[in-house]
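A quick aside before the break. I want you to see a complete sequence-to-structure record at least once, exactly as it would be stored in a machine-readable document. Don't worry about memorizing anything.
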Amino acid sequence: MAIDLGRESSDPTLPATSFLQKYCVWKSDSDGPPSDKERGDYFAMLPEYLSSDCLGSTDFFSDEALEMLQSPLIKEETLSRKDLVHLRYERDVETMAEMSSNLYRWSEEEVATKSHLQWASWIITSRVLTVQGPPESGIANRLLIPLIDMCNHDRDSPHILTGRAMAGATLKVVAGVDVKAGDAINISYGGSVEGNDRFIQDYGFLDGGGSKERGKSEVAEAYKIVARKLTGRNRALTKLTVDDQERALEALKATTLEEDEEII
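That is the input. The structure line, written in tokens, reads:
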């Protein structure tokens, strides 16, 4: 049932090319493995190309919008990801499409573009689960797992996704409370330690508060995590250098809080 997109790596564009090829076989009904066409029900449930779901991610921000974030760290990582897409498209997708008219066929009239690969890379970043293989293998694979990868985010969810980090373990969602028919099953993205700096890049949303926080006047935990990273108050979690912290804080001084609120 799961779609195996190969071994774990730091470059999401590599598994994205594999996913895009499978998706194109289904979407254009072109020649390809029957198994790709049989996954149509799952593919049809994924966020559509250039839908509101993906456009919230910084991967699809204009240069002007990236500047308005006043976050040099997010801007640099986003531009780096865009560069990876550009290189991967020229090296793999465009080259293979020129060799065979059936490869990366988005529709009868159109071959998949760089923008389509950008979307596919976002699908990988936002939905793929990295799962450890057998203990003796020492490898981890990137998998699209129907149903599990459709759980939405709630920092206060009692349900937990387990089995990813332990070699040979079984991946499963463990219910923290009784689940009734019709109940949404949410999980906490990022192991409850990631903040809105990651969410806006990888998923395309800002966490305004978990189910226990909503409706309260307190600043949401996802924003507090970002603040602790930038001020160095959580050395155990932050991966920022002192220079990165200083650059990020300096960029925020470009506008006042009042000016930001007026724009919003």
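Two observations worth writing down. The mean pLDDT is 88. The chain has eleven helices and five strands. We'll return to this after the break.
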